[in-house]
Design goal:
Layout: H1 6-11, H2 32-40, H3 43-48, H4 50-63, E1 69-70, H5 77-82, E2 87-89, E3 93-95, H6 103-108, H7 118-131, E4 137-142, H8 144-153, H9 161-169, H10 171-195, E5 199-204, H11 212-218, H12 220-230, E6 236-240, H13 247-251, E7 258-260, H14 267-274, E8 279-284, H15 293-307, E9 312-316, H16 326-337
Parallel strand pairs: 1-4, 4-5, 5-6, 6-7, 7-8, 8-9
Antiparallel strand pairs: 2-3
Helix pairs in contact: 4-7, 7-10, 8-9, 8-10, 9-10, 10-12, 15-16
């Protein structure tokens, strides 16, 4: 029995005393304890060693006091498990040396990924045990379109021009690749739920590069397939970053419990688009965490005023930046926790 089930209550749109709070990328580079482990172990050793992934996942729960843990991992474990080499250079980001270019490249990809991802399930099981029901545990995966971007481009990019050109010039092949990624992701997320994840979030970090019609072709169908497959097992949060035009359509599906928002939309507009059909999560600009703690508290309280306390999860509009002081991350979390009995306006 969870001692703190605010996140699950919010996702079920049950009444809560205050919004739950957690931060995307909360287990990571802004924490000195994480940096100490990074000096000892390379990135994929940290991801693929259950004891290390567990220790890193617990850090923000212990240090910052968030209302949920999110398993320490990476979205690119799926392309890796499907057969692509993924290199991760500290401070430079991912590199995939052998990109997807042709039908034969797509055909070579395996969809049966769970044996290769057993370390992730072991990390979740261990973390659930170590959390001892303090807070829920969130599992996650990258969305099919976002993974396609890396698999075709071969590295991070601001525009992913090669990946978008692949979709537009070879739509049938793009669809085949997206479906393979979707099938692998469903299997992976079901494995996470079985191992003990209480919630799953699907990160479509690059869907905002698509126009509304192209989003409906290359992103939405696959996001919704995942949500439909997982909803019987765990609540599903979708994060289509930059795709505010999709809020109305995605919120129309009962399989979607929550939608995470970036900072480019007003809370009132997000509520209007979704009509309280889903719980909203977000959308504090991570750069504002460099303000003073008092200013952070004021901004957080204004954000909660705008969203309302019900059917809402306080979070950032994207991942926390490495240069954020720990005390500022603390100030963000505490401002949410104090909202019911302190008014800083």
């Amino acid at each position: 029995m969870l001692k703190n089930d605010l996140l699950l209550k919010a996702l079920r749109q049950e009444e809560v005393s205050r919004p739950p709070v957690w931060m995307m990328r909360q287990a990571g580079r802004y924490l000195p304890e994480y940096i100490a482990l990074r000096k000892q172990y390379d990135f994929f050793t940290r991801v693929q060693t259950p004891e290390l992934a567990c220790a890193i996942t617990l850090q923000p729960v212990d240090i910052v006091g968030v209302d949920a843990a999110i398993i320490f991992s990476d979205i690119l474990v799926i392309p890796q498990a499907m057969g692509l080499e993924v290199l991760m250079e500290e401070s430079k980001g991912p590199v995939l040396p052998n990109t997807i270019k042709s039908a034969s490249d797509v055909d070579k990809l395996t969809v049966s990924v769970n044996d290769q991802l057993q370390y992730a399930f072991d990390a979740i099981s261990l973390t659930k045990k170590e959390l001892n029901d303090r807070v829920p545990l969130i599992g996650f995966a990258g969305a099919p379109f976002t993974l396609l971007c890396y698999m075709v481009e071969g590295k991070g990019s601001k525009a992913f021009e090669k990946a978008r050109a692949f979709c537009f010039t070879q739509p049938a092949l793009a669809s085949k690749l997206l479906q393979k990624i979707t099938n692998a992701t469903i299997q992976y997320l079901k494995g996470q739920a079985k191992a003990g994840a209480d919630v799953v979030q699907v990160f479509d970090s690059w869907s905002g590069l698509l126009g509304p019609d192209d989003f409906n072709l290359f992103a939405a169908p696959y996001l919704l397939q995942i949500a439909e497959a997982l909803a019987p097992h765990v609540p599903v949060i979708l994060f289509p970053k930059g795709s505010n035009y999709a809020l109305r359509e995605l919120s129309n599906h009962a399989c979607v419990s929550g939608i995470s928002l970036d900072w480019t939309i007003r809370p009132a507009d997000a509520r209007k688009e979704t009509q309280n059909r889903v719980t909203l999560q977000g959308n504090f600009d991570p750069s504002k965490l460099l303000m003073s703690p008092n200013e952070i508290a004021r901004e957080v309280h204004s954000m909660i005023d705008a969203f309302g306390t019900q059917g809402y999860i306080a979070n950032l509009g994207h991942g926390i930046s490495p240069n954020v002081p720990v005390e500022n991350a603390n100030a963000f979390v505490q401002a949410v926790k104090e909202y019911t009995h302190v008014a800083v306006h």
